Amino acid sequence: MSSGSPRPRAEGEVLRGEQVVVKFGSKTVLDRMSLSLEAGENVAILGGSGTGKSVFLKLVVGLLAPNEGSIHLWGQPTEGLDEDAWTPFRRRMGMVFQSGALFDSMSVFENIAFPLRQWGDRDEDAITKRVEECLTWVDLDGVGHQSPSELSGGMRRRVALARTISFEPEFVLYDEPTTGLDPVTARKISRLIRDLDRKLSSTSILVTHDIECARTVASRWAYLAGGKIVADGTPDELLSSGDEELREFLLGGDPARELPLGRKGQ
Amino acid sequence: MIFGPDPRPICGLRGYENGTVSYKIAIQMSYFFSSLGEFSEYSALVVRRVFSRRYTLDSLMTQMHRIGVESLSVVNLCSFFIGLVLVIQTAAMLARFGAKSQVGMVVSASFVREIGPVFAAVMFTGRIGTGIAAELGSMVVTEQIDAYRVFGADPIGRLAVPRVLATTLMLPPIILIANLVGIFAGYLLARFHLGVSGDIYLARSFEILTHTDLIGCVIKGVAFGLTVGLIATHIGLKTARATEAVGLSTTKTMVQGVIAILVLDLMLAKILVAVQS
What's the pLDDT score for residue B2? Predict the structure, then answer.
């Protein structure tokens, strides 16, 4: 990273989603879901497949609009904003997509430089330096000239991470960053995310059903089921919950399995 | 909504009994007009973005080169064979009236006024339009379009506009070249197979053509190129998030593109004939 010490922590509410409803045709995906985040918080939204976790992230970043309810970012309502009006918000946010979403037609270098050029406040030398720093940070020195199609799944995710952090966003959204990766690579990605959050003092939402990843990255867990947040608290609070469905999800369907508590950050 | 699901019917269809033929017709009509409205909105947005210059000159040149080079061979190959067939058909007919030497006139007029622009545009839709729809559709499926938006880059300004401009600018010269190839193919057959004098063929070919024919050809090229570009980028950007949806988008581009070309051709033919007379 460019700065040696963590960025000063911002204060105040970053996100407030209230009574959010999202419907696709006759199917209600989010049903009066509410979630708020203070600056510096790292929240993991947990839940099974198809529960609307990624849909919520897309609402936050303005890729979808809710049918009902509201999303406020840094105290500002986002209802009815057009693409241009979203720009000031998106300048402060980064998103790591589930598939990486690297631009096929560009090299790795061009991919990471993309947001830096887009937000346009650095010259080419500074952009080159920054891209190299980011590649070093994700342990991918020397791959800048390669095409995304030449990289493995884990490397693609790391490039996607580098692209997102390149402009040091205040608020980062991670959409299932470890899905489809082997356990060793998934652990590596989880640690990278944790280090990034610490270094940037960023606020983040991690959407995942990987409990290991959530334990490494997030200090607060929110469990999404039936279109609502049904449990919200520290990992210890959720793990000691009496809710059968939640316990089954967290313990991976194996009630005999014990999850060591309070290991975040190890 | 440019990014997102297809538009819903514009009316509530009250008074129609669900499941009846009239209901089905009404809902299809309603979808048609909703889609047409959305396409018009998209087209207006693309035109506005042309002037807001969110694309780079580099990206425009890349698209023009790609679109021009990729389509030339297939369009010209078709023109060549159409030219040959046209000479065989018309020469046989003209020979009955002892006017075989006039074959160049018929081939040239048919090509420049009608066959050249329409065939070239149809082949262009199949080669380039479907390619654009597949490319943008794949970017939707792999979330690259979402990434563009999240990083504050406008996918319409950055991706759609250079492609629409390139199809609009490249189709007219492609049509003109296709016309020449078709007429030349006819020349080869007429001279070496049918025994028509080459000089007479060429003289008759260019004698029949007027400035209006050439201007009409260019106008048709611009109109068809713009339409194919708009349809292909619109369908591509609206591709659903499923792998099979990319295939569906290419098919839709071909069908809608060809229908639009034929409808436009009819309208332009009417206008150009009125201007000529």
Answer: 61
